[in-house]
Amino acid sequence: MRHKGTALLVALIAAGALSTNAQAYDPFIDWSPVESFAFEPNFVMPHQSIAGNSLTIIGKVDNGFFGPLAGNVLGPGVEYTFIIDQLTSAGGVFFEQGNFDVWKTNYNGGAFRIYKDTTPDRAYGTNPPNGTAPSPTFDGDELILSGTLSNFKTVSNAYLLNNNGGSYNADVKYTGGTQLGLLHLCPDVNGNHGKLIGVWQRGLSNTPVGYIRSCDGKFDLNECPVPTESSTWGRIKSLLNH
Fold first, then answer.
1. Is 142 within the bounds of a domain?
2. Contact 86, 62 (CB under 8 A)
3. Which of 5, 89, 91, 181 is the most exposed place for a label (fewest CB within 10 A)?
4. Over the stretch 162-180, which tens digit does the pLDDT of each residue have?
């Protein structure tokens, strides 16, 4: 019957049988605010980035890997560290928004590297860059993934309540590393493979001296199209007539 065929077609659409998208990985790589910190020489605390400053974020992947990189198992004999750098500030801009004032900063450039280290020795130290951070304790034995960033920006809350919070984000291209071949890369219209997203937090008690923010964060991986069987309207109508 036609009504039964229509119901079947609707059910197929609802089940995703005619969908062109596969699963995305969100998060793809994830870390906590107690294992990632940012430093920027000449930054004017609490909020102001000066044009030309160079921002660096370092940390350890402690919440895990997912999707195609899920084989990287966290444990006591290995650590995965990362460096996000080559970010040049365009200068912080203050936006007065009544009870919700913020500072926003755009950065040019950007790159990241994720390392596997079988001799865990990360040490943040104080007032970076220093003798342990970012090098030599955050660039481990094996570079498993690297890439470039674009459109990197930070937002810092500057209002009376909750003025320690904020966010950072960027577009990501995955371009290198020993595990790049595990990824099924699906660029968006701008050629990006995913996003970097995080919380830009000031004033956490564990933040080492000389670091401007703690950086809870994650990398995402775009969803990919899946092959679909081509058909004709006549074939679809034949389904509706049964």
1. yes
2. no
3. 181
4. 679 999 999 999 999 999 9
